[in-house]
């Protein structure tokens, strides 16, 4: 087990809670933490307590008027009509008590991970409480109040002066991060996600390539609904390899939403745990090949909190700490502890069965369409490379 990694964690992450029936449930972080502890793959030497982001840090990305509105909303002092102008009080992002404090802690936890890595204390750091990639400069969106990844990237740029590769494997397009750095040639964003034809936020087309000096540093691969492991991984591995070689980053930040899984209730993709073994493996390789090992990973989407998220996020940590050769049954003690609370039967093993879902009728068509999308997404790199030869 590598000790050169940090796991940022606090049970205070659970304070980021809209209401009992909301799909965004930070209990999934606790479930993952407990699974890793039970497995013996995480101990006190890895744990770093998070801090709360300051207003000045939040203002690296967010308008101060918006920060003030979030504070007022959390105190019950923001009129509903005003709140809606800021994306607060919607069905996706309802107001809850102490909203600012809970949200600022998630941002601060990602900044804690950044400083742990870039100070040289560790090579890799994981903050599963983060990954809220839909937050905008002056507006909440898609379960996200503040955008911890965007704040962290700007923090890296200003404090450390490093070039950042941001990789987003959430089923939803990483819109908030993309738009924050759309004109910045020192931040390269890559999002692979379900096409916006069927899914929030409806953006992330291949022709979103950046603006001004940032043109050519934004990459999107919108895969078709019902995409399976083979096609998803072909797109991811081909794109990330070519993008990393093109951009040659100083540090990699990965957003690890796990809502592309077949079980996820909010999306329409069909990947399994096979994909969630490969995603961190390639990111890990890229970190060492281009970034001197510097890798900051955050959480993200994932709405089957019982069957999918703990396994997938545990596999992320296991890869990060060189313990990824875990197969077979899940720890019985973990299953016995949580099964009484789970509304579904917990999985028996780390990996999914081969017959998890019935055959996809349009498989060949979907695979062909995705391959064509990859070609279009990477055409800028390939043309640039051809011109240099």
TrEMBL record:
Keywords: Acetoin catabolism. It comes from the Bacteria. SUPFAM superfamilies: Arginase/deacetylase. Residues 22-317 form the Histone deacetylase domain. Signal peptide: none annotated. It holds the Pfam family Hist_deacetyl. Pathway: Ketone degradation; acetoin degradation. Belongs to the histone deacetylase family. This is Acetoin utilization protein AcuC.
